[in-house]
Amino acid sequence: MKVPRLKNSLPRPLAGSLAGALAGALIMAAQPALAGPYDNLPDMGEAIDRDISLAEELAMGDGFMQALKRKATFVTHPLLNHYVQSLGERLASASGWNAYPFHFTVIQDDTINAFAAPGGHISLFSGLILRTDNENELAGVMAHEMAHVTQRHVARMIAGQASVNLTALAALAAAILVGGSNPDAAAAAVNLGMAGAIQQQINFTRDHEYEADRIGIQILAGAGFDPQGMVSFFEKLARQEGDGFYVHNELLRTHPVTTNRIAEAANRAHAARPSKVFNQPDYAYAKATLAALLDPRPLASAGRLDKAAGDGVARYQRALLLNRAGRQQEALPILLDLHGKAADNLWIGTLLAETRRQLNQDDQAIEVLRAQLDLFPGHPMLTMQMGQLWMAKDPERAYSLLRQALRDNPSHTGLLQAFADAALRAGRRSEHHEAMGLFFIQERRLPEARAELETARALSLGDAISRQRLDALIERVETEIIEARRRKDQHS
């Protein structure tokens, strides 16, 4: 099925990369290359184990992401995040990496950027996604960043810069994000000593970048993507006129994608292209969803899309814009027509159900979701949406539905929150607090997790099995808290 091509938003200057601050894991940073850079690259993903353990790397990643979440705005659309995570998992299945899972997030920021943090945390900026032209380009960026993880480049950088404090790195990242389009404001937040340490890290990343290109191309081909997508996005970056943070700050300036690097990647991509390439139609809907969610003038933009009668993706985007503008009655007939032609489209179906709910048409919304669940049994997004609809009408039914869904997806944070809400409404307070405890464990908010689990234990009197399970969870959380304090004292 041909994926409809969306018109890109207006080009913006290429901002300086946050990834440089994260130990040089840049999609665009490479120094002028020597001849044949791929030919003499060592496999750099092994010796690091002597310097930093996987457990320490995971702990650093958790700490970094917690710091980042306090400053950055993350996109929270459930189906969009599900698509990005699923795309990443498809790539991960071809990477050969099984030390720990990858976690993918989308940061709401118009710059063209992506980075890999310790512990398999990969973040894409919304500006990058909106400037990709197809799923191969998006997958190319993700595969490159995943290669930084599988080869443990970020961990190597941190281990090699023992004097660099992770909290300071997170503060630097936050400063760059807060600075946004004002590089002087970001620069003012960075002291000279940290800048020197980060510059040393950036200078150390040339071979890492070429290795990430090489490994990323292998991942793309193994997952059934066209590796040329990585190359075409590199070419797009090379055409940008840099005017961001690193351009204005000579000390932290990173180097653009070089002609030599693009040529080497193109040769690799051509040789590695799989015989069959599979791209999902979801990409176009994901991009349209992101554009509509971030549009500052949804009603005006919906008017500009009024004549896109034959383009299903554009009509879906228009309906979402109308929904955001509070014009659900205008969005409904568009969605009904689209749903009639593509009843198996999750993007259309979930938006139709949400629009029905906003119009107080809960029964019709439930019918839409029930039909989609027949097509996609157990789909976490559909189940979560259905459970939220049942909460007001029949909380016990919502509780049962979401409890079953959690058995198949025990770490899904959205389901955990929805189940906690349903359990509370159904009068099951112990299970409510246990679910919130599990949610906080997934979010790495361990003191809050311990408090919720202790409350659940206190409410589970007479239930020996539940108390035994909760005791084990509390002991696990307390062990992690003690270990985190030990590491903090070690590095303070």
Q: What report would you give on this structure?
A:
By secondary structure, the protein is mainly α. Among the domains are: 18-272, no CATH class; 428-492. The protein is built from 25 helices and three strands. The protein has helices at 18-21, 54-69, 78-92, 126-131, 135-150, 153-160, 166-179, 183-188, 192-203, 206-222, 228-239, 245-248, 259-272, 282-294, 298-304, 312-324, 328-341, 346-358, 362-375, 380-393, 395-408, 413-425, 429-442, 446-459, 464-491; strands at 103-107, 114-117, 121-125. A three-stranded mixed sheet has the order 1-3-2. A hairpin with a 3-residue loop joins strand 2 and strand 3 (121-125). Helix 18 packs antiparallel against helix 19, helix 19 (362-375) runs antiparallel to helix 20 and helix 24 (446-459) packs antiparallel against helix 25 (464-491). Residues 1-50, 174-204 and 241-256 have low confidence and may be disordered.
Please outline the major beta sheet. Answer: 3 strands, mixed
Let me know the number of strands.
3
- Report mean pLDDT, rounded to a whole number: 79
Poorly predicted runs of 5 or more residues:
1-50, 174-204, 241-256
The percentage of residues in β strands lies in under 5%
Count of DSSP-assigned helices: 25
Task: List SSEs in N-to-C order.
Answer: HHHEEEHHHHHHHHHHHHHHHHHHHHHH
Task: Specify the helix fraction band.
Answer: 55-70%
Strand adjacency order, main sheet:
1-3-2
Q: Span between N and C termini?
A: 56 Å
- Estimated structural class: mainly alpha
Q: Rg from C-alpha positions?
A: 24 Å
Shape assignment = flat
